[in-house]
Amino acid sequence: MPPRFLSRRASLALAAFPLVGCSTFRPRPDSGIPLPAQLASATAEPANWPDPLWWRGFGSPELDALMERAVSANFDIRAAIARVRQADAQIRIVGQALLPTGNLTTGVTRTQSPTQTATAVTINNTGGRRFVQRELFQAGLQASYEIDFWGKNRAGVVSAEQSARASRFDVASVTMTTEASVAITYFTILAAREQLAIQQSNVEAAQSTLSLLQQRLAAGTNTGLDIAQQETLLEQQRAAIPPLRQAIDQNTYSLGTLTGQTPEQVSRPRMALGDIRVPAASPGLPSEVLQRRPDVWLAEATLAAVQASVEQARTAMFPSITLTASGGFQNVALENLLRPGSVLYSLATGLTQPIFQLGQLRAQYRLTQAQAEEILENYRLAIVAALVDVESAIVALRETTEQETIQLAATRAAERAYAIAAAQLRAGTIDLLTLLITQQALFNARNQLTQVRLLKLQAAVGLFRALGGGWS
Is the pLDDT at 138 greater than 50, yes or no? Predict the structure, then answer.
């Protein structure tokens, strides 16, 4: 058959290519959850969204360095980035179903058979028998193409694209969580260091009082009971020191995990907790909050991917139409292989309707539907959890700020009370029990102030994280 006729037939097959992806299916995730007009805990002031480098607002160069290290070296972030590359590769793999498949073949076939006449090239064996030896040269191209009439293959590509989209949101979500963990761990170390300093000061104060009582005991103005009570208080203050050192060391090592370093490589924080300032942040509308949360986008993209999988499973039960074509050259002489007379080709169209596996395909369809229902509930949960997260963070920062003000006033009052009690004890106008009560109140007030300051900083980090951490 002449090549001109072959090209005409091939053009008829190629005319079917525009049918690829003819399905217009697009996933449309809808949570069905009505959003409130405004956040219940938000103030009337305009929105002040976090900066992408929101941690710089705390004014700590140490924290800045830790964040820079974490973003580039954290193992979870790097693993999430690798998953993005996997998802991109999966799109190309799945997308191949929308394109023809083909193979270029070449070959030489040699056959030998006994014959009674020398009609071809012959050879003689030791018995004098004659054999015919033939060589057949071939070169050709085989191609097949499945017309995506129902959109099955296109739905698979959409599912892969949405999964890749979700993997990108996962990187942002993991990064945001890592940044918040670094900040909280760093502030926990500073709080433990401040509590350790306070505890050491408490031990010195208790030791000073014990020395005074021992002097009075020597003068006969105190009893052994007074000494024993003060020694008990002194040892209690000393016993609180090892757990604080442990907290400092363990949280410092945790920074190594977050920043991709071994424990001995982590620099120990040196800043004082009181030098940390809390930057301001306030949310806007609930819809704007959701737009800035990568975890919500992640849930939405995951739902869109599984919705596309449902469509793919549904269309898998429909007939599939496949075009196949092959063409090439075949000749017994290599020098004549590419001549028009050596041309051969074949064209075929096939329609395949699953029959015996329909039960399996229906079960697969129901499975993906149930999976989509599960992911839809997860999507709804992500939306509600995001709004609750913001509300809780706003309340936590507001209340801990007020609590810090109150606790600071209480600590200053306890310091004045202890100074007065210590002076009166030296003057002999009060008994030891009054001093012990005043002293214990001061120790508790100091520790409580540090804990409240830590809670305030944690609440600030929580608010920045709830507002999307500057991601958009």
Answer: yes
143 beta partners: 102, 325
- Tokens 């992500």 correspond to what residue? 382
Q: What is the CB neighbour count within 10 angstroms for residue 148?
A: 22
Higher pLDDT among residues 42 and 54, named by residue: 54
Residue among 407, 406, 439, 433 at smallest CA distance from 420 = 439
Q: Is the dihedral of CA 257, 260, 262, 264 positive or negative?
A: negative
Which domains, from first to last, does the chain contain?
40-96+151-319+358-466 (1.20.1600.10)
CA distances for 197 relative to 59, 204, 270, 443, angstroms: 22, 11, 12, 12
* C-alpha torsion 231→236→242→244, nearest 10: -130
| CA gap 466, 472 in Å, rounded | 13
Q: What is the pLDDT of residues 312-347, one digit of tens each?
A: 899 889 888 888 888 877 877 777 777 777 788 788
Q: Name the CA dihedral angle for 62, 67, 72, 78, rounded to a multiple of 10 degrees.
A: 140
Question: In which band, very low, low, confident or very high, does the pLDDT at 16 lie, cut at 50, 70 and 90?
Answer: very low
Provide the terminal-to-terminal Cα distance of the chain, rounded to the nearest Å: 62
Q: pLDDT tens-digit profile of 87-97?
A: 999 999 999 88
pLDDT (mean) for 291-320: 92
- Tally Cβ neighbours within 10 Å of residue 25: 19
Are 12 and 252 a contacting pair, CB within 8 Å?
A: no
